[in-house]
Amino acid sequence: MPAATTKTAMAGTKRKLAPSKDVYVKDSKKAKVGSNSKSALKQDKRKSTAKPVVKVKELSVSDSDDSESEGGAPLESNQTDGDEEGSDLDDSPNAIEGLHPERAKAAATNSQSSKEAHQKQKLLVNQRKAAKPMADELARTKQLWERLRRKSHVPAEERKKLVAELFDIITGRIKDFVLKHDSVRVVQTALKYSTPAQKRMIANELAGTYRQLAESKYAKFLIGKLLVQGDAEIRDLIVPEFFGHVRRLIRHPEASWILDDIYRGVATKQQKAVILREWYGAEFALFKEDKPETAELSEILAVDPGKRAPIMSSLFELINHLVQKKLTGFTLLHDAMLQYFLNAKPGTEEVTDYIELIKGDEEGDLLKNLAFTRSGSRLVSLVLAHGTAKDRKHILKTYKDTMQMMAGDANGHIIILTVYDVIDDTVLTSKSVFPELLSKDADQQIENISLAANDLNARLPLLYLFEGRSRALFPPSHSADLEILSELDTIRKTTSKKDPEIRRSELVKAISPYLLKPIETAAADLVASPFGCQFITAVLLGAEGEKSAALQAIAETASGDPTFIQPPPEEQEEQEGQEASDAEPPASHVSATASGGRMLKSLIAGGRFDSKTKTIIPTIPALNFADILYPHIKDHIIDWATGPSSFVVVALTESDNFSKKDELLKVLKASKKKLEKSAKEETDEQKSRREAAQKALEGGEGKLKAKKAKKAKGGKEREVGNKGAAILLQKL
Question: pLDDT category, 423, cuts 50, 70, 90?
């Protein structure tokens, strides 16, 4: 049975039951006298209800494919007699057993009259639809949409014909389609399969109506599709129509979302400035500028300080309105909130009242939404720096359930770093951050830390206390983080009393037990990646506590053949006619990776290299990793000395705490010829770099690439050979 027919049957059943219910209202009161009256009444109700259902099922639908018409297809009475297959009831009153003849006759009459009323009602619906403008066109476009939306079921040639027919119908009257929920999707489908020229045609036809479309519950999605799938010409046609109406549209329940999507996703820098400036008051909406100089409120107030009071008042009023309405997820709102806070006077009621506004959201949705945008996270960081101890405690409590999400977010992690830098109560920080960030379950902690250590953002809250603001931890992509942290340094001088180094050391002591256990348990997984090796080095050199088990686990990863390199995927499938195993192939040996060699060398050195003094600052107490590592690698020590990680052996010979140094030197002297050969021959890494450089030079790829290729090749005189082996020869 078609969906529309099913819907009709359901609706008809409800209307037919109503008269039957009225028939028994009076009798149900009298039935209380007899002992079997209740059971008889239930039996009567069941049997009287069954008949109308059968009568509705006997209605058939005309052979129409218009499944999209509201209310179903036109009804035609194809009523059959009671002998029809599948029908086991009769229309006669006597067929309803257990009923008084008069009641059965009334039930049958009511059923028949309800069916006729239903047919008349459906007929009126169809007549009203047919009388509407473009009724035939709408019906046909719905049929086309029904076919086109099933992309995998329509051949390409048929789709082209259907799309062409669809554009023939809608071209020139797209405005008539877009404001109806059942026809705007037709235009969206046409847009999906359109060419760039057809997209621009649709955009031009709708010019002047985008503000109205944005306020529509359904048509607003068409604007989003046009902006995402369109080009710069379409963007510059749509976005300016919102200028001058930002303050009203941002309050609108539908238009506010599409306005924020435009601001966040597609608007140019100048278009963003126009939109944001309208938050500063009606003056900026009435006297619009196509190319404003800036949206920075500080620069606007520097030009005309007399406007400060009305601008700040207008800005606060609009921010407060959206916060009270729980519309706190807009990037546009977060940018405006940051502008207000940056221009509020520190130590005044402006800042105090504003912090109370941010804290006032009982559900904490505002603070949570702020954490995941660049402006919002910076605002929260500033509030933490300027706020009181009570304010900071409230904010930490709000973020209790979102610490892990914030750590992995490109913006949210800066709030955790700010907490480390500005909150003097390290006990509060330790209890509020570390268990939520790393989990309270010991097994889950190991899994979480292993994943976080290899994540570009999530590793920052783990290693910031050990690495500080080093370039290794903050690559150029995180330069904005360093700018925010530098901004906070100036503020915390007046709002925090504890010495930064004391605060850091107390937090390191608190987080160390969480981080040492995963190194002991999941050392093999961590050493397999560069970020994992960096994590191990930073924690073992900077953490406090017992490290012997973790150091032993790292030394065990260096056991085995140091020349093993994981084969390429194509070589893993089948070797010598045997099918590959389902088990994952082992990773390359730790010595075969540059990050693994650096990690072992740093642990043997037992401290961090100070670039100012050009010396190693040893950790206290000493790691003594050389004595732990040597038993695991001594059987392959010559392969280490002539391999990619030869500097690990160099570090062993230079270590003051290595007790087997004489034994090592004796073994190296016995293999002096191998060291000499390795020191002169080109390594695999040098060979691959040379071939890549030569290929770039021969390809004639331009001056810039040639310059880079020359640098990769090694400059004027490229040195060959294993440098670590050469240094060992000098020591011998």
Answer: very high
Co-location of 144 and 228 in the same domain: yes
> Has residue 649 been placed in a domain?
no
Q: Do 144 and 117 fall into the same domain?
A: no
Q: Which long-range contacts (CB under 8 A, 24 or more apart) does 491-498 make?
A: 491/382, 491/385, 491/386, 491/422, 492/385, 492/421, 492/422, 495/385, 495/386, 495/387, 495/422, 496/422, 496/423, 496/424, 497/424, 498/424, 498/426
Q: For position 156, what pLDDT does the model report?
A: 83
Q: Looking at the structure, do residues 21 and 127 belong to the same domain, yes or no?
A: yes
- The residue behind tokens 């060699």 is 597
Cα distances from 640 to residues 2, 566, 685, 724, in angstroms, run 75, 17, 15, 10
Q: Is 121 helix (H, G, I), strand (E, B) or coil?
A: helix
pLDDT tens digits for range 597-607? 999 999 999 88
For 260-326, the three-class secondary structure string (H helix, E strand, C coil) is HHHHHHHCCHHHHHHHHHHHHCHHHHHCCCCCCCCCCHHHHHHHCHHHHHHHHHHHHHHHHHHHHCC
What is the enclosing helix (H) or strand (E) of 156? helix 156-170
Q: Is 606 left (phi over 0), alpha (psi -120 to 50) or beta?
A: left
- Do residues 44 and 139 both lie within one domain? no
Q: Is residue 589 in a domain? A: no
- Is 211 among the domain residues? yes
**Does the residue 82 lie in any domain?**
yes
CA distances from 151 to 3, 159, 189 (A): 21, 9, 11
Mean pLDDT of 291-317: 89
Q: What is the pLDDT of residue 691?
A: 64
**8 A C-beta contact, residue 393 and residue 428:** yes
39-48, 64-73, 105-114, 226-235: least confidently modelled range: 64-73
Distance CA 157, CA 632 (A): 67
**Is the same domain home to 174 and 125?**
no
Query: Residue 50's closest CA among 42, 61, 60, 38?
Result: 42
Q: What pairs with residue 76 in β-bridges?
A: 60
Q: Quick one: tokens of 200?
A: 């621009």
Q: What is the pLDDT of residue 31?
A: 41
Q: Which domain holds residue 700?
A: 687-731
Q: Distance between CA 439 and CA 404 in Å, rounded?
A: 9
Which among 197, 222, 242 is the end of a domain?
Answer: 242
Q: How many domains is the chain built from?
A: 3
pLDDT of residue 69: 38
Residue 632 DSSP SS3: helix
* The domain boundary residue, chosen from 131, 149, 166: 131
Q: What is the C-alpha to C-alpha distance for residues 161 and 199, in angstroms, rounded to an integer?
A: 18
| 127 and 140 co-located in one domain | no
Average pLDDT, the chain: 80
Coil, helix or strand at residue 60: strand
Q: Report the C-alpha gap between 365 and 371 in whole angstroms.
A: 10
58 and 9 within one domain: yes
Q: How confident is the model at residue 119 (pLDDT cuts 50, 70, 90)?
A: confident
The answer to whether the CB of 342 falls within 8 A of the CB of 383 is no
Better pLDDT: 35 or 330: 330
Whether 112 and 21 share a structural domain:
yes
Segment of 77-81, 273-277, 566-570 carrying the highest mean pLDDT: 273-277
Residue 298 reports pLDDT greater than 50: yes
Nearest to 267 by CA among 296, 295, 236, 291: 236
Res. 36 pLDDT band, cuts 50 70 90 = very low
3-state helix/strand/coil string of 201-231: HHHHHCCCCHHHHHCCCCCHHHHHHHHHHCC
